[in-house]
Design a protein that fits this description.
The protein is an alpha/beta fold and 169 residues long. It contains 5 helices and 7 strands.
Length: 169
């Protein structure tokens, strides 16, 4: 079995996937026509930072398989931190991290509950991504405040359950 075939088997075993993340050589986590979420995210970031995210730090709360962290890294983010309460999604993120072509230095993924964010110490982030989590929280305002208190530049909050490209948040 080839390396590509092994990777495709691992992707299938860790499914289902909720985000389409390109890994390498035309292999992605969710072989689907489109790319609207990646394109939309990167367009938004370039509207705010036209020269990219060089030197910026990025946190994604409830990161799922970490797509937004990978896309922020593509734009030059120096550090990304994604966390999710579901271990299976962190395993997905780590599979992508271990196999992705392109820069992955400074990227970490942890299984962690949002309310445990004080456990990461005094870390701060330039950009915080808070999407697809708000409506799951028992105390969403407290959860949002925990992230906001660590954010220095931009806090993106989405409370929607359907994105513009028709995919779930």
């Amino acid at each position: 079995m080839s390396s590509a075939a092994q990777l495709q088997n691992q992707i299938a075993e860790l499914g289902p996937w909720h985000q389409n993340i390109e890994i390498k050589d035309g292999i992605s986590t969710f072989p689907k026509v489109g790319g609207g979420r990646r394109r939309g995210f990167q367009q938004l970031m370039r509207q705010i930072w036209p020269d990219g995210l060089s030197g910026k730090t990025f946190i994604d709360s409830a990161c799922n398989a970490g797509a937004y962290c990978f896309w922020a890294k593509e734009l030059g983010a120096s550090e990304t931190f994604g966390f999710d309460v579901r271990e299976e999604w962190i395993r997905q993120a780590r599979l992508v991290l271990d196999n992705r072509e392109g820069p992955t230095d400074g990227m970490t993924f942890e299984r962690m509950d949002l309310y445990d964010i004080p456990s990461i110490g005094d870390r701060r982030f330039d950009i915080a991504w808070f999407s697809g989590i708000f409506y799951h929280l028992p105390d969403p305002v407290t959860g949002l405040k925990l992230v906001a208190d660590r954010t220095d530049e931009v806090l993106y909050v989405s409370t929607g359950t359907l994105t513009v490209d028709g995919e779930g948040a």
